[in-house]
Amino acid sequence: MKVLVTIQAVREAVREARKQGRVVGLVPTMGALHQGHLSLVQQACRECSFVIVSIFVNPTQFGPREDFAVYPRSLSADCELLKREQVDVVFAPSVEEMYVPKADTWVEIPSLSRVWEGRFRPGHFRGVCTIVAKLFNIVQPDFAYFGWKDAQQLIIIRKMVEELNYPIVIVGCPTVREKSGLACSSRNVFLSPKERAIAPAIYQSLKIIQDMVKSKGITQAKKLILAARKFLKNYPQIKIQYLAAIELQTLRPVKKVGPGVLIVVAVKLGKVRLIDNLLLT
Ligand code: AMP
Q1: 0.85 exceeded by the pTM?
Q2: Which residues approach ligand 1 with their CB closer than 6 A?
Q3: Domains observed in the chain
């Protein structure tokens, strides 16, 4: 496994792989790898013959008061994990390698970027789309892997790929959870033991909605959301930022739920912001 830090070196590695007829898969990450990331990597390794994992904590997707400075970073441990998965290349560039000073070219999908996550994290998806577009231009993969954990991100990237005509298949991978149901996240390390014990309630609130739909046939979104909110009231440490039933393509709230409706939730638990979602089937 090669650990590369320059764009030129990655381009050369990909060129060489292409010469050998290999199928190129890209897994973009911000590092501090956990089982969720590794499931994406494993799927990429099954489906592609040349796998690049990028590790880059992208400053442009963090707001001025967000956790960019303290975001967990563990490059050498990450590389050990990726070596075991038989990844071909880790691309771990510096901020200077990825952005020229005062870089001012942006990719943005305003209609999908200013709601839900975007409302609480202004500029976040502009940063995400821009860095992912740059990674796509550098690596030019056949397949790129993203987690359903960040459902809004996945939907936005799919739209970007369609509208900017990238010849890349976007693969959405299922959310990996701890035994408790808590979705794996790099930010879970910031939770205190007490908060960690409470955090599974987030997913439980989504399961409550799923159960009400499945076993009682309730489809009225208002009723379902209210029940989940009521459940979360048992945990006063959890502050809900949003909890909604939305349409997959447009991200608009629905009045009636059914297959293909996504339940999305974002909360603050202490100082930690956590998101989760559940797709109704
Ligand atoms: P991040 O390092 O947080 O930018 O995440 C990199 C990729 O891993 C994104 O596509 C995420 O959606 C995905 N990911 C993060 N957590 C999980 C999880 N628990 N299960 C599946 N994918 C995840």
Answers
A1: yes
A2: 29-30, 36-37, 39-40, 146-147, 149-150, 173, 175-176, 183-186
A3: 2-173 (3.40.50.620), 186-279 (3.30.1300.10)
